[in-house]
Automatic annotation (TrEMBL):
SUPFAM superfamilies associated with the record: S-adenosyl-L-methionine-dependent methyltransferases (SSF53335)
Taxonomic placement: Eukaryota, Sar, Alveolata, Dinophyceae, Suessiales
InterPro entries recorded: FkbM_mtfrase, SAM-dependent_MTases_sf
Chain segments annotated as transmembrane: none
Protein name (Swiss-Prot/TrEMBL): Methyltransferase FkbM domain-containing protein
Domain of life assignment: Eukaryota
Domain Methyltransferase FkbM: 157-236
Length: 282
């Protein structure tokens, strides 16, 4: 999947930015992201106008659609310890930490493997999974009808999360789809109002971890979520130049270190995943 969000608000076509302070025209449409250079953007189907009047955002986590990113010469995942130099840290992750009832929030449903696993492991848990792409939600009804998932316990929310609200259309493997992004603070506030608490937040959404954590970490105490898992991504056009992306991650890692303790860190061909036990959370 190569998501391109054409936002309702307008953006200037000229330098220095396509849609924000660091994503320049040359970054959007250059040989770095495609052999066509400035005639086409990083996808051969995306013209300069489509690239630079909207925003390329990481809003969902169907990683299998992003294998073409390999053609851009940078890895999809960053080095595990690029900010602190640590190696893999093995540790058992109990998403619910024995809590009953358990409440789980996931950003990026993918093909539902996590939702299915949690539903089996924690049959009494309430699970909220965000997925803005309708084409990625097609299997939900079949899973409910087959009795694999409980409508009472599993809730699929038809939108994604970011640092602010954004609406538009995104290009997926099935064509243009209308999507909605909501502020992560509002999303967690609403779920907390319904459930009373959240035990575990799982973030795996092709780059949305950067704006999501930038918005959520400064006010983490308002939700008191004790466990956070994050899959880090890199090398994608919508994350900006790699030096800036790395700087953003390291700033977030500094905040995480102040607010929690690293419980597990795993690097594999499937991704770079960290799990943090947040301090002061019950």
């Amino acid at each position: 999947m190569k998501p391109l969000l054409n936002l309702a608000v307008g953006f200037a076509l000229a330098e220095p930015g396509c849609f924000d302070e660091y994503y320049t025209y040359s970054m959007c449409c250059s040989p770095l992201f495609g052999a066509e250079g400035n005639t086409k953007c990083w996808s051969s189907s995306l013209t300069f106008e489509r690239c630079c009047t909207g925003a390329v955002l990481a809003v969902q986590s169907a990683g299998r659609h992003l294998l073409a990113m390999q053609d851009y010469g940078t890895p999809r995942f960053p080095p595990l310890g690029e900010c602190r130099g640590y190696s893999s840290l093995s540790g058992e992750v109990d998403e619910c930490q024995g809590a009953t009832p358990c409440k789980i929030v996931e950003l990026g449903t993918q093909d539902g493997l996590n939702v299915r696993r949690w539903a089996r492991k924690f049959p009494n848990a309430s699970i909220y999974s965000l997925e803005p792409f309708a084409s990625e939600r097609a299997w939900h009804e079949a899973a409910f009808q087959a009795g694999e998932l409980s409508r009472e316990k599993v809730h699929f929310l038809p939108y994604g999360a970011s640092d602010k609200a954004q609406n538009g259309t995104a290009e997926s493997r099935r064509g243009q789809e209308t999507i909605e992004l909501r502020p992560i603070r509002d999303v967690l506030d609403e779920i907390l109002a319904l459930e009373g608490h959240v035990n575990f937040l799982y973030v795996n959404c092709e780059g949305c971890e950067y704006p999501v954590l930038q918005a959520a970490l400064p006010v983490w105490d308002r939700w008191n979520i004790p466990l956070l898992s994050v899959e880090w991504h890199a090398g994608m056009p919508w994350l900006g130049p790699e030096p800036l992306r790395k700087s953003r991650r390291c700033e977030l890692e500094t905040q995480l270190k102040l607010k929690g303790t690293l419980q597990a860190a795993v690097e594999s061909q499937d991704g770079v995943m960290e799990t943090w036990r947040m301090q002061g959370c019950a």
